[in-house]
Amino acid sequence: MRFNKLFTVLGLLGTSLIKANASRSDFYGKNDYRPELFKILDDHIATIKIDFDNETWETMKQKSVLEPWDAGKNGEKYGTTNATLEFFVEGTDYRVDLQPGDFNFYLAGKGSRNYGKPGYNIKLEKGSIYDVKLLRLRSNIRDATLMREKLSSDLLYKMGVKTTSTNYANIIVNGEDIGLFVLTNKIKKDLIKKYFNDKTINDLYECKLDYARFEDNSIIEHCNNIKDELVDDKDDLQNLVDAVNNAKSVDDIKDLIDIDAVLTTFAFEFVTLSWDHFFILGHNYFWYKNPQSGKWMMILNDFDETFCQDIWSNYFTDDSRYISKPYIPNLEYLNLPNLAVRDMDSGHKLVKLLIYDDDTRWREILGEVVKKAFNPSVLFPRIDEIAELIHDDLAVSREILEETGRARGVFNTAGYDPKWTVTQFEDTTNYINWAANNGASRSYGLKFFIEERFKYICHTYGINPETLELIQPRPVVSFWGIKNKYPFACPESENCYVEGNVKFSFPDLDKELYMQESYNADAEKNKDPQEYQYVPTYHEQGEQQSPVNDATTTTTTTTVVVAEPTNVETTCWSEKLGYPCCNNSCYAFTTDNDGEWGYEDGHWCGVPASCSQEKCWSKKYGYECCQGCTAYEVDEFGKWGYEKNHWCGIIEENCQ
Ligand SMILES: *[C@@H]1O[C@H](CO)[C@@H](O)[C@H](O)[C@H]1NC(C)=O
Ligand SMILES: *[C@@H]1O[C@H](CO)[C@@H](O)[C@H](O)[C@H]1NC(C)=O
Ligand SMILES: *[C@@H]1O[C@H](CO)[C@@H](O)[C@H](O)[C@H]1NC(C)=O
To answer: Where would I find the CBM10 domain in this sequence (predicted)?
Structure first.
């Protein structure tokens, strides 16, 4: 087998390299508490050989074939307990042999089963493979870098957060090389026992189903106690949910919730733009009450969709029950590294209590995270080290096989297949972004994203990017927004949506408002968003009745439809609905059957009819009109100029 030969050569190379240099294990410091399995794989890729009857293997492959988005419902955990397993680490003495009955090998994964290369679990009935009883093997073929799961667990480790660990393994089933897999463990009783010194583990609830949140009590339905005998016992969890829903301030919950622990998990989601945890999709996490402190915290797991992977605009607007974000632009114009908490949040009560009400502690925690872990000087060398470890095996793993026209292990012929190459691995572990149009994946260049995100966080929260210390007192800073004026571009292809994989970039970033020196010089004036406005969330509006819920369900686009001015009403149309008319602007956040709604001084207001007489057409998009007539861009709304560091609408009739 060619791959084994290559592996041996690399193994030797790796060993000599490690003698000369430090081991990748140094990253974890002296008190490395990870399970042994992960420690022994820091500088090696494991090999796992599994053998059982070929008929069952063929059936497993067939059962992996699932149409996209059918898979969540119909993905069967099919597999076998009648198999042998050899685990070994080439070039070392590490080795484990398992016999039929010792373990279960089965198809696994949830979202990943919509994709071409299925994942597997190995579950040991007794004993362990170097301290791990359940091995998750995931192909993570959406991620061009195959590194996001690994980098995330390393980042969390540096942040002091205890969760799953990651390394890599090559898998061979019945002599068939199925390529390279990400190897992780799972949050299980053994891990909790070890990490939290908890022998009872009565309050560990796994939130697997989407959209588990407080305000609609869905945490109760969507999260289950991991102990079968306790599945119907939800009193403790209900107490938590009620306490959050009834809290008036953080003081009401600080004895029940480990605030710093929750803020730290929020920080992870926020810095990596993870959409697959609490903030957005509301799953892949656990609520856990530590019996010693009596306080609840969240434990996240499953980290393939982090570091700005596979993000689409609608993720931020789909659930508009508790927050309205009509200003979120299309992906082309969305500046993801500048995403603020408000852009990401789905109007969670917990985010209001812990961040919006007073973000002092949040800022300190973000400062710690940036100092310890989320900065280029920690992450860039780590990316390079991991890239070096997996590069050659990944090259073999991604090779397209002549017989199948697909890469190794890609059995789900109906699923999405981004078909990332090793070149795209090299690009996306650095600064180059790639989109797989047929594979429904977008992989931002890790270093591009981290660098831009780091700049945004340092700027916004007043962290010195050189010393990584908080600047005291906290400086007022100009607002860095998410709405680009210039779209992304795909210079090497006809357009950004051609078949197959395309490179994309943001060639005009330096022309954006937030990049201008003069804009940043006048922080006091520019501290609020210029191109859009935030609407307070459902919880921030408090008891006050508001039309936000009705309005957002009837509004499908952010484009405001202006009523034809027939005869201008002098009375205020919204007064009869109990709302004053807006006095300060014509900006409409949302439109419903009654009319256009703005927001001023903490309450909703009707956009007055006189606004449709407004000569400045760009006002309702949040831009003033220009004095001059020089147009830099034309879109479906009109001609745009740029004056005093701001985009402005050109009034045609003044420019004839
Ligand atoms: C286990 O598999 C072997 C062949 O791989 C077969 O001979 C044996 O009958 C199987 N045992 C059971 C209990 O199914
Ligand atoms: C399964 O098939 C492979 C290749 O087709 C063959 O090498 C192997 O011996 C078979 N294994 C069993 C248990 O029949
Ligand atoms: C606008 O001004 C009027 C008169 O001063 C006031 O009654 C009304 O509440 C104001 N509207 C808003 C939205 O503040």
So the answer is: 571-608, 615-651
Would 65 be classed as within a structural domain? yes
383: in domain: no
- Separation of CA 81 and ligand 1 centre (Å): 10
Res 14 pLDDT > 90: no
Q: What is the pLDDT of residues 257-289, one digit of tens each?
A: 999 999 999 999 999 999 999 999 999 999 999
The answer to whether the CB of 53 is under 6 A from ligand 2 is: yes
Mutate-to-test residue for ligand 2 from 174, 176, 177, 403, highest number of ligand atoms within 8 A of CB: 174
Tens digits of residue pLDDT in 92-105:
999 999 999 999 99
In a domain, 56, yes or no: yes
Closest CA to 237 of 279, 205, 189: 205
**d(C-alpha 210, C-alpha 350), whole Å:** 18
Kindly give the pairing relationship between strand 441-443 and strand 295-300.
unpaired
Burial-class residue 530 by CB neighbours within 10 Å (0-12, 13-18, 19+): buried
Rg over CA atoms, the chain: 27
CA dihedral 55, 57, 60, 62 (to 10 degrees): -60
Q: Total structural domains in the chain?
A: 2
With H, G, I as helix, E, B as strand and everything else as coil, classify residue 57.
helix
Distance from the CA of 616 to the center of ligand 3, in angstroms? 22
Among residues 155, 186, 217, the one where a domain terminates is 186
For range 227-249, the mean pLDDT: 95
Q: Is any ligand 1 atom within 6 A of the Cβ of residue 53?
A: yes
Which CATH number goes with the domain that contains 632? Answer: 3.90.1220.10
**Closest residue CA from atom 8 of ligand 3:** 580
Q: Using alpha carbons, select from 555, 563, 557 the residue that is nearest to residue 586.
A: 563
Phi and psi of 271, rounded to 5°?
-70, -30
The pLDDT value given to residue 355: 98
CA-nearest of 408, 411, 403 to 422 is 408
Q: How far is the CA of 174 from the centre of ligand 2 (A)?
A: 6
In a domain, residue 106? The reply is yes
| Closest protein CA for atom 9 of ligand 2 | 174
Q: Which residues line ligand 3 (CB under 6 A)?
A: 580-583, 600-601, 605
The secondary structure of 323-378 as a DSSP string is: ---TTPPPGGGB-GGG--HHHH----HHHIIIIIS--HHHHHHHHHHHHHTSSHHH
Domain containing 177 equals 7-186
Ligand approaching nearest to the C-alpha of 174: 2
Place of tokens 């829903």: 245
Instruction: Check if the beta carbon of residue 639 is closer than 8 Å to that of residue 650.
Output: yes
Span 344-386, pLDDT tens digits? 999 999 999 999 999 999 999 999 999 999 999 999 999 999 9
Cis peptide before 475 (omega within 30 of 0): no
- Measured between alpha carbons, how far is 234 from 215 in angstroms, rounded to an integer? 16
- Picking from 186, 212, 235, the residue at the C-terminal end of a domain is 186
Q: How many CA atoms are closer than 13 Å to the CA of 100, on its beta-carbon side? A: 6
d(CA 330, CA 610): 30
Phi, psi of 427 (to 5 degrees): -65, -50
Q: Does residue 292 register a pLDDT over 90?
A: yes
